[in-house]
Amino acid sequence: MDSKNKKQRPLHIPEENVYKSVHWTIILAYAIAAFAIYLLLSSTT
After folding, report:
1. N or C: which end of the chain has fewer CB within 10 A?
2. For residue 37, what is the DSSP state?
3. Which of 19, 24, 21 is nearest to 9 (CA)?
C-alpha cells in the first residue's frame, strides 16, 4: 500500500492492527496447512 492511495483507517480499528506486509501468523497458518496435507497424503500409501 503506497502513501498516495492510502485509505483512511476507521476510528474503531487501532493503529497497531494495520499491517503493511504479510503477518507472521499467516505464514505459520500456511506452513501448518502444508504439513497437514503432507501428512494426509503420505499416510495413504
Report:
1. C
2. H
3. 19
Residue 31 grid cell: 506452513
pLDDT digits (tens, 9 = 90+) for 18-27: 777 888 899 9
pLDDT digits (tens, 9 = 90+) for 26-43: 999 999 999 999 999 997
Grid cell listed for 28: 505459520
Rounded alpha-carbon distances, angstroms, from residue 27 to 8, 11, 21, 32: 27, 28, 11, 9
Find out whether 6 and 15 touch, Cβ atoms under 8 Å. Answer: no
Is the torsion defined by CA of 33, 34, 38, 41 positive or negative?
positive
